[in-house]
Specification:
This protein is mainly α. It has a single domain, classed as Helix Hairpins (Orthogonal Bundle). Helix 1 crosses helix 3 and helix 2 runs antiparallel to helix 3. The termini are far apart. The model has no long low-confidence stretch (mean pLDDT 93).
């Protein structure tokens, strides 16, 4: 089976190259690291758009979450798009992200199992 994360990184890099080719003097002509603030802001906005699809506003009638599933997955794809470009523009690879995630995952598990600051009050 193919490495899906590496595939996503390759697809995103290819998309960035297409943008550069179509707009040689545009946004993608900037140095990659200078674009990172734009990507973090885009991520924040996309997360807010996803949040809007999750019925967080108690003063509004709730949406049927099963019916708006396509909008939610589209917002998640947008989040992933900007996350991948942010990683690429900082020089990170799929392997770097996998290693960082694996390390943080292990640390989060360790905290829940060993650190009293993270355990639920009723856990021995």
């Amino acid at each position: 089976m193919a490495d899906r994360l590496a595939d996503l990184f390759a697809m995103q890099a290819d998309l960035a190259e297409m943008y550069r080719a179509h707009r040689p003097n545009g946004f993608y002509a900037q140095e990659p690291i200078t674009r990172c603030t734009t990507w973090t802001r885009a991520l924040l906005h996309e997360v807010c758009e996803l949040d809007d699809e999750l019925n967080w506003k108690p003063w509004k009638n709730p949406q049927d979450l099963a019916q708006n599933s396509p909008r939610r997955i589209d917002e998640m794809a947008d989040i992933l798009h900007f996350f991948l470009q942010l990683a690429i523009d900082q020089g990170f690879t799929a392997e770097d992200i996998f290693a960082a995630y694996s390390s943080k995952h292990s640390e989060n598990r360790r905290r829940q199992e060993e650190d009293p600051h993270y355990r639920a009050p009723d856990t021995p």
